[in-house]
Structure formats: C-alpha cells, structure tokens
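In this notebook, the sequence line spells out the residues, with the fold written below as integer tokens. This is how one looks.
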Amino acid sequence: MRVAIVSDIHGNIRGLDACLSDLEQQGGADFIVGAGDFCMDGPRSPEVLERLRELGAYCIRGNTDREIADDPSKYDDETAEDIRFQRALIGDEGIEWLRSLPATVSFGDPSNALLVCHANPCNDTEHVWPDASDMQLERLFGDVQASAIAFGHLHLPYVRMWRGKLLVDVASAGLPKDGDARANYAILTERPGGWEVKLRRVSFDVDEVARELEKSGIPHLEKRLDTLRGHRYKELGTVIP
C-alpha cells in the first residue's frame, strides 16, 4: 500500500498541482490524503477544495479549516477578517465540507497502522519540532497505537524514530517555511513491520502565486507576500541556512 500525503496547501493550487504531477511521475499512490489547512493565506482556495474532491482524497481538518468553519466573531479582528474572506471564497458548501472533516484517518492493519493527523494526534495547533522533548512526545504520541504517524502544521519536513514509532512531518504543499521555496509532500509505503517514507520536494511558480495574491483582494496582502516569498520561519534565524 502506498499513501501520498499533502498538507498545509493554504489556497495554493499551483503548489498542490506540482506535488500531484510529481506523484504521478513517482508511480502514483493507492490513497491520497489531505492533512488539513486547505484554504487560509492563499488566493485559490475553491480550486484546492475542488481538486481534492475530484481526486477522492481522504481529507482531515486542520486548525485553519476549523477556524473557517467557526464563527468569525470568536477571533481577533485580523483573524476574523481573514476568515470572512475565505468563507466568501469557498461559499456555504465549502464551509460545510470543512466542518464535516474528521480529525484523523488511519490506514493498514492495527498492528502496523499509519495514522495521519494535522498537528499531532491530540490537537490541531501544537507544533512538534524535530527536536521535541521526550516529555512532549510521550504526551502527544505515547498512547497512539500506530507504527507510523504522519502530520503537517509545522511546514517543516523531517523524519524521526521515537520508541519504535516513525514520526513524519510532511510539511507544506503550498507554503514552505524552512528556507526552501519548493513544495513538500510525502509518500509512505507499507512494509512488513513498518512503513517506508519518501519526502518529496517540487518547484512551483512562486512569482505567479504572488501575482494571484495581488489580484485576489486578500486581506493583509503584504504579510501574505512576505510569508510566501520568505518561505522560512523568522524564529529560526540562521539555524536553517
């Protein structure tokens, strides 16, 4: 069994399509999973949702999907404005679709399962950095009965073994933040006694996405452009060259 996972597309259909094209060149997959955060920050959210549904992808809910499906008045003014813009883009059908998504999806036999979630198995907001402490990993992953756990949210690709569990951050198919402008996705292949992982990086036209943002009327444009073009966490400083 081969499972391809794309996460954190953030309205970037060009990044998603680049990943899907590469996946086809890699031989495809039995299942495609969208691991959340499909809309916020990007100019073409409706196309992203349409593409995933066309593919029959197994989709789960990310934190921004939850926010878009929620009452905007619960959030600060800036976030509420972002939510209202995205809600207008995707319409009532898109909002209801996001609201209906599950938090996780699993593949394979329970004795050798792959669990896919957004940020971690316990919540959709807490980052799991590559050097996460044993205490944090125990709290978030210790009770999970799966041999492999794949997630996104951090926009930073990595693979780590922890107590016999394979932890895979598939990063972002639409808004990379590790200093590399290329989109990310992962292919996981079931093997006897575990899962094999292949992290993939593919280029997309960042300048064209920026032009689409400029034409979209999206709120807080300069902030969006800075994030797209900077493709890195400012908190990392010089940690990632």
Notes: The domain at 2-236 is CATH 3.60.21.10 (Purple Acid Phosphatase; chain A, domain 2). The two ends are 36 Å apart (CA to CA). The chain has a mean pLDDT of 95.
